[in-house]
Amino acid sequence: MFISGSLSVNGYKKVYEIMKIFLDCIPCFVRQALDSARLATDDEQIHEQVVREVLRLAADLDMSQSPPAIGQKIHRLIRGLIGNNDPYHELKQRFNRLAMRMCVELAEQVRVSESPLETAIRLAIAGNIIDLGVKTSIAESEIEKVIRDCLTADFDSQQVEEFRNAVGRAEKILYLADNAGEIVFDRLLIEQLPCEKITVVVKGSPVINDATIEDARFVGLTEMVEVIDNGSDGPGTIMETCSQSFRDRFEDADLVIAKGQGNYETLSDVNKNIYFLLKAKCPVIARDLGCEVGKMVLEKNKSFDDVADLVKEAE
Amino acid sequence: MFISGSLSVNGYKKVYEIMKIFLDCIPCFVRQALDSARLATDDEQIHEQVVREVLRLAADLDMSQSPPAIGQKIHRLIRGLIGNNDPYHELKQRFNRLAMRMCVELAEQVRVSESPLETAIRLAIAGNIIDLGVKTSIAESEIEKVIRDCLTADFDSQQVEEFRNAVGRAEKILYLADNAGEIVFDRLLIEQLPCEKITVVVKGSPVINDATIEDARFVGLTEMVEVIDNGSDGPGTIMETCSQSFRDRFEDADLVIAKGQGNYETLSDVNKNIYFLLKAKCPVIARDLGCEVGKMVLEKNKSFDDVADLVKEAE
């Protein structure tokens, strides 16, 4: 299920294992292509051309890449064909506004909660439903239902305490954001964390409905914490395509909080102190996590080897 | 949404309109390819090869064909690549057995119903959920839920009466079956109809989980009514690929009862006295029918022009 590779980051070699693309992902990529084309234009000839070109690209894909790495290539092709660098722009703004309306009341729920941190974590995970990579559209009623479910679903309190301790111990925390709209829910969680330790990371340029610096500004994150971009248009954290300055920050951070499926797919085999927060929305991810589709996930990175880290520090 | 074509059937020309393939269907075909390959073999290299070849075929598709016509080509390619003429064979048998177990009790429900015909129609439509073209798998619990829902859902009783009258008036009725397993539910309906007027039609050779003569024998349909095959491996009724003897029977019939999405897609624009019975399981079909996904459909063919038929008879 995983293939090993080695990648030079910051001058020293580290073994990276990359979640291999699953054949199951391909129908999803074709649907994403059609969604993007329809968002950009009503011209059905362009829709058809985009689908045909994506099918051709997919037929000759290198299947040893991670799903977000494939997604990055496919969405570059799509944006070129439709002549629109940000087909999801309007949708992203709509979800930002919707989430901001919703979060007024949710912030109050966090405030009066017996465990504000746990409630904020639950809401940050609920916000991960706003992912247009997985589905063509998400209704407001669906988001409301997911919020209700996430506030009451079974959840491992032990993991919450471990997360709280990890945050307490850390000095430099990177919070890798996922989607527009969702970042408003991330705000609720960040408000429960020591803001001075935290840098939020958004994408370098648009891909699907992933948040960029424009979204971070729009929802007021930039006034709360430092926000940087990763220099990449990958729907995840694809190191090879990120800027050197982001890689330096990643290397330097002693804790990473990674939101969403794309970050899980690209980072779950990196030897780094990471907590993944996501909703498992597709069978491929759920299978890899060993959980059911729909499950809330707060999980410490299994590939993190504390000992190796200590050895590295001692060198 | 529709394109016109003309097709010579039985020596005279008739205008056929073919439901054009929708780009939305393509992700579904890719998934079907993967399902078929996985059913046939555990060899992941073959899975990958099948997906790549189907993507190549799809990239150059003639998009003016009906979805079942495309499906026919794609499944021929798949069967060739995997070297297995009937990858769904075991699943078909499993669904036949499951449906036979379920229908013992359901037959009793039909018997004691205030309107046995309506109850049997509801159950025949419920059975249409057993469609592996739409989904990779269907759990027994899902079939049970669909049966419960179909027995109580809103339903147009007027349509049931019109259907009853149409059956009463007809002399030669063709019942176009859809899937294995589902044909056991069809039995419940056929038992409420004048059996001597009815000929059940199954596929000429295997495609997806569509019923063939083997299934009809297995569930005892052949002992109840005349059963013929249409000579085709299309997942619907694609006239050009059906045998001449089936076409003659189709021409000769004064009423056709057509089960499932594939028959709707291939026959809804044929000028013929047809009642369609199906569950609308995908957005493309639901949009065409003007209903919601999941809806039970008993619908008289809108393309049937009684007057034209009378003129033809007078000639």
Can you describe this structure?
- Chain A has 315 residues and is an alpha/beta fold.
- Chain A folds into 2 domains: 2-82, no CATH class; 89-314, Uncharacterised protein PF01937, DUF89, domain 3 (Rossmann fold, 3-Layer(aba) Sandwich).
- Helices cover 50% and strands 14% of the residues of chain A.
- The first copy, chain A, contains 13 helices and 8 strands.
- Chain A has helices spanning 25-40, 44-59, 67-82, 89-112, 116-127, 140-152, 157-169, 182-190, 213-218, 244-252, 260-267, 283-289, 306-314; strands at 2-9, 12-19, 173-176, 198-202, 226-229, 255-259, 274-279, 296-300.
- In chain A, the strands form 2 sheets. A 6-stranded mixed β-sheet of chain A has the order 5-4-3-6-7-8, sandwiched between helices. A two-stranded antiparallel ribbon of chain A has the order 1-2.
- In chain A, helix 4 runs antiparallel to helix 5 (116-127).
- The two termini of chain A are 33 Å apart.
- In chain A, 48% of the residues are buried.
- Mean pLDDT of chain A is 91; it is low at 1-18.
- Chains A and B meet through helix 1 and helix 2 of A and helix 1 and helix 2 of B.
